[in-house]
């Protein structure tokens, strides 16, 4: 192990599907140790990991939560209550999840314009430091997009959170994985990264992400969110 590797935090990934395996590859390439889990036993994902993310260590979700410094949530949002919350106490947790009704079913609680889904995750993990990141870019673009810092046209990932130190740690992670981090705001503001926004699915540079964020309040979704939140305050 190099000196660099030994000083980097261990990244845990909950979810060994399309996004979980792509993020594993990106972070392994950046030198981070990666621990990864699906919903079941490590044996169930070991072949997938050997092929798609060689070098990552397959574990149970509980062991990933226990042994990792930073844990990325890359499982279906509708299953968030199966996350081992007690083992994530005090940890930095990166929420890459989205509400997708075809997968999650019709869930009004996950589709409320007043509350971002990362705020829900923060409520479920009250002592963890939750940062939204890696959710808005499709996994193919994540896979094909990484470039070194300073590369012209480098693609960007929006990040949002309520804890400045956690945000700066996630910004460093995003940068190391090959993308420019763009600060979107608080967890409440992360609704601008969710499905229904221009940024959801976006594969933009930092200035493109910034421009889309500036437009968000005037878009149909931005107006819907603002109206729902104003009604809540008035009630
Ligand atoms: N696909 C994209 O382009 C994309 C891009 C950005 C973000 N996202 C978001 O990332 C999340 C994952 O999407 P995906 O496309 O990667 O889904 P996917 O390919 O269906 O993979 C989901 C993974 O989550 C695992 N899982 C389910 N419950 C779990 C639990 N309690 N603990 C640990 N792992 C669990 C599944 O394991 P089993 O197979 O054992 O159930 C599977 O390995 C979603 O919230 C999605 O919205 C997706």
Notable features of this structure?
235 residues, alpha/beta, Rossmann fold, eight-stranded mixed beta sheet, 10 helices, globular, binds NADP nicotinamide-adenine-dinucleotide phosphate, Pyrroline-5-carboxylate reductase catalytic N-terminal domain-containing protein, STEAP_metalloreductase
How much of the residues is beta strand, in percent? 5-15%
> What is the level-2 CATH architecture name?
3-Layer(aba) Sandwich
| Ligand catalogue | NADP nicotinamide-adenine-dinucleotide phosphate
CATH topology annotation: Rossmann fold
- Percentage of residues assigned to helices: 25-40%
- Main sheet strand line-up: 3-2-1-4-5-6-7-8
Mean pLDDT: 96
3D shape: globular
Number of helices: 10
Look at the structure and give the CATH class.
Alpha Beta
The strand count comes to 8
- Report low-confidence residues grouped into runs of 5 or more: none
SSE run: HEHEHEHEEHHEHEHEHH
Within CATH, the superfamily carries the name NAD(P)-binding Rossmann-like Domain
Structural class from helices and strands?
alpha/beta
Radius of gyration: 17 Å
N- to C-terminal distance: 58 Å
Major sheet details:
8 strands, mixed
How many domains make up the 3D coordinates?
Answer: 1
Give a verbal description of the structure:
The chain is an alpha/beta fold and 235 residues long. Helices cover 39% and strands 14% of the residues. It has an eight-stranded mixed beta sheet with strand order 3-2-1-4-5-6-7-8, with helices on both faces. Strand 1, helix 2 (18-29) and strand 2 (34-37) form a beta-alpha-beta unit. The longest helix is centred in the last third of the chain and has 15 residues, at 220-234. The structure holds NADP nicotinamide-adenine-dinucleotide phosphate. NADP nicotinamide-adenine-dinucleotide phosphate (NAP) binds at residues 14-20, 37-40, 61, 74-77, 79, 82, 96-98, 100, 135, 138-139. Residues 14-20, 37-40, 61, 74-77, 79, 82, 96-98, 100, 135, 138-139 line the site of NADP nicotinamide-adenine-dinucleotide phosphate (NAP).
């Amino acid at each position: 192990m190099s000196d660099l590797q030994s000083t980097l935090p261990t990244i845990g990934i909950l979810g060994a599907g399309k996004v979980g395996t792509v993020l594993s590859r990106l972070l392994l390439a950046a030198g981070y140790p990666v621990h990864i889990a699906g919903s079941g036993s490590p044996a169930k994902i070991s072949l997938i990991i050997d092929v798609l993310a060689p070098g990552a260590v397959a574990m149970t979700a509980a062991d990933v939560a226990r042994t990792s410094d930073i844990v990325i949530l890359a499982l279906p949002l509708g299953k968030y209550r199966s996350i081992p919350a007690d083992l994530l106490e005090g940890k930095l947790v990166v929420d890459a999840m989205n509400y997708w009704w075809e997968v999650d079913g019709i869930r009004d609680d996950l589709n409320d314009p007043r509350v971002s889904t990362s705020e829900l995750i923060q409520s479920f993990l009250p002592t963890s430091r939750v940062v939204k990141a890696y959710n808005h870019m499709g996994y193919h673009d994540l896979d094909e997009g990484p470039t070194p810092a300073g590369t012209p046209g480098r693609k960007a990932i929006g990040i949002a959170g309520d804890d400045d130190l956690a945000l700066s740690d996630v910004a460093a992670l995003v940068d190391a994985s090959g993308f420019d981090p763009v600060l979107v705001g608080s967890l409440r503001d992360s609704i601008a990264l969710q499905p229904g926004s221009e940024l959801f699915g976006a594969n933009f540079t930092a200035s493109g992400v910034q421009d889309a964020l500036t437009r968000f309040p005037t878009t149909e979704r931005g107006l819907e969110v603002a109206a729902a939140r104003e009604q809540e305050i008035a009630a």
